[in-house]
Amino acid sequence: MPAENLKPSAEALWALRGDRGITYGDAPPAGSRLVEGQWWPSSYQGPPLISLETRIADGLGLKVGDKITVNVLGRNVTATIANLRAVDWQSLGINFVMVFSSATFRGAPHTDIATLTYPGGSTREEDAALLRAVADAFPAVVTVPVRDAVNAAGEIVVKLALAIRGAGALTLVVAMLVLGGALAAGHRHRVYDAVVLKTLGATRLRLLSAYVLEYLALGVTTAVFGVAAGSAAAAWIIIKLMKLPFVWLPIPLLVAAVAAIAVMVALGLIGTFTALGQKPARVLRNL
């Protein structure tokens, strides 16, 4: 089936647009791992084999054992899919959708590519000096500085993180206002409860303990539901929409849950002290 007749998924469509860089090797490239199939031996000399990125393969409807024909420098090369790889594109390392067995292109013209970074970082002057030295020593080498592009991407990520934190902070403020309103709405009933219980012999300490337990139970229930629902929603958005790996961080969630429970109990007790200070006689006359 010609590539133009395929109906790939949106995730795999980019692999069919324009020319695609390919490589060959005796071992899986760094930054990728096998998810299906087996890698060919380093001494393999048989028919062409190919390793395909797993999401591209799924988007094109390909699987291990299928044959795929690739036009390389005007020559059609048909290879059998030997394995599928998951590639960590987020690492910004060099990687390829297609990796062929080494014997496939033995003797064919090729280009070596590599990335270079300073262990402790570098300045623009150091980068410029290095580029001049490489150009003087190897005139045929093409260098592409990526500092500005990486920095721009980093700034976008930082701004996105700040926006998410701002939205989260606003959500917390709104939640506190809603919680305060709910407690205020039930204040009158708590006054009546406190007065009746005091009339029946309940001490201030016993009433305070009962309210603390009530707010504590309410806070724990709310925190557990919030953590579960929030984690599930975040995982769905990160994995399904953003196509990124989701990492569940228990420590920040535990801190946030404990803080929410503490705020819940504190706000509840602030209104409870007013209820405990009411005189039974005056309230009972108005029942």
Features:
287 residues; 6-stranded mixed β-sheet; 7 helices; alpha/beta; 13% strand; 3 domains
What is the radius of gyration? 32 Å
SSE string: EEEHEEEHHHHHH
Instruction: Assess the beta-strand content as a share of residues.
Output: 5-15%
Name the helicity range: 40-55%
| End-to-end CA span | 84 Å
Count of runs of 4 or more consecutive helical residues = 7
Total separate domains? 3
Derived from helix and strand composition plus strand pairing, the structural class reads alpha/beta
Task: Calculate the mean pLDDT score and round it.
Answer: 84
Largest sheet: 6 strands, mixed
User: Judging from the principal axes of the Cα atoms, what is the shape?
Assistant: elongated
Total strand segments: 6
Q: Catalogue the unreliable spans.
A: none
Helix/strand layout:
Layout: E1 22-24, E2 32-37, E3 49-53, H1 54-60, E4 67-72, E5 75-87, E6 98-100, H2 124-137, H3 147-185, H4 187-199, H5 204-241, H6 250-276, H7 280-285
Parallel strand pairs: 1-6, 3-5
Antiparallel strand pairs: 2-5, 3-6, 4-5
What does this molecule look like?
This protein is an alpha/beta fold and 287 residues long. It has three domains: 3-115, no CATH class; 117-145, no CATH class; 186-285, no CATH class. The protein has seven helices and six strands; from the N terminus they run βββαβββαααααα. It has helices at residues 54-60, 124-137, 147-185, 187-199, 204-241, 250-276, 280-285, and strands at residues 22-24, 32-37, 49-53, 67-72, 75-87, 98-100. Strands 1, 2, 3, 4, 5 and 6 form a six-stranded mixed sheet that branches. Strand 4 and strand 5 (75-87) form a beta hairpin. Helix 5 (204-241) runs antiparallel to helix 6. The radius of gyration is 32 Å and the shape is elongated. The termini are far apart.
